[in-house]
Amino acid sequence: AQSVTQLDSHVSVSEGTPVLLRCNYSSSYSPSLFWYVQHPNKGLQLLLKYTSAATLVKGINGFEAEFKKSETSFHLTKPSAHMSDAAEYFCVVTLMGGSARQLTFGSGTQLTVLP
Amino acid sequence: EAQVTQNPRYLITVTGKKLTVTCSQNMNHEYMSWYRQDPGLGLRQIYYSMNVEVTDKGDVPEGYKVSRKEKRNFPLILESPSPNQTSLYFCASSHQGTNEKLFFGSGTQLSVL
Tens-digit pLDDT profile for chain A (115 aa)? Predict the structure, then answer.
């Protein structure tokens, strides 16, 4: 079985300061890991994806995430927050090459960016 | 423009009145799926489809039906809606499966009274 834990339901940062959204996963096999972002009243949009190539993955809008197998983590970071980053973020795990059913979403982290 | 289109955007109904939420994609994707989003629970998969006439249950299929008669369409059917199905629903598609980028619709907010 696989699972995803987003360690913070809410994160608040000031504009221009770093962002850290934490995600831990549990998977019996090699996982694919994703971060999606959901802006208010919108569908989810892919930020970045890890599939066993480089452990540091760069995504859109200046976000990146590092896959750490020893810590079973896939934390999302951004050096400098922008007001437009305020949204809900979801960490997602699926089995690499696994069945279509096994896609598991974390419960989400709401990011607030203060002026 | 590549997109996943859901309709309606908002729906209020009463218990027991059958309804259908439509989903259509214009990217010739093989994989389509439905999710419900509830506060604090993230997204949970209801049903998915790997291709035409191929559908399977996700994690929370009870009370829902789907069909995939054409590649582009994947409607979600609630035969007898109940208040516990009040939720935000998303349709998503990808080229071949869950290891690829999912394209999401804008969501359908359903309220069952």
Answer: 778 999 999 999 999 999 999 999 987 777 889 999 999 888 899 999 997 778 899 999 999 999 998 999 999 999 999 999 999 999 998 865 555 556 789 999 999 999 9
Best A99, A101, A107 member to test B by mutation, with max B CBs in 10 Å, is: A101
Of B40, B58, B90, the CB nearest to A43: B90
Query: What does the DSSP 8-state code read for residue A62?
Result: G
Is B58 close to A101, i.e. CB distance below 8 A? yes
Closest-approach residue (CA) in chain B for A101: B58
Nearest residue of chain B to residue A32 (CA atoms): B99
Q: Rounded CA gap, A70 and A20, in Å?
A: 19
Please work out, in degrees rounded to the nearest 5, the angle formed at the alpha carbon of residue B21 by the alpha carbons of B15 and B23: 165
- What SS3 class is residue B85? helix
CA of A21 vs chain B CAs: smallest distance (Å): 15
Query: Is residue A24 left, alpha or beta, with left meaning phi > 0 and alpha meaning psi from -120 to 50?
Result: beta
Rounded to the nearest angstrom, the minimum Cα separation between B54 and chain A is: 12
Label residues B58-76 b or e (16+ Cβ within 10 Å = b): bebbeebebebeebbbbbb
A44 and B50 within 8 Å at the Cβ level: the answer is no
β partners of residue A26:
A3
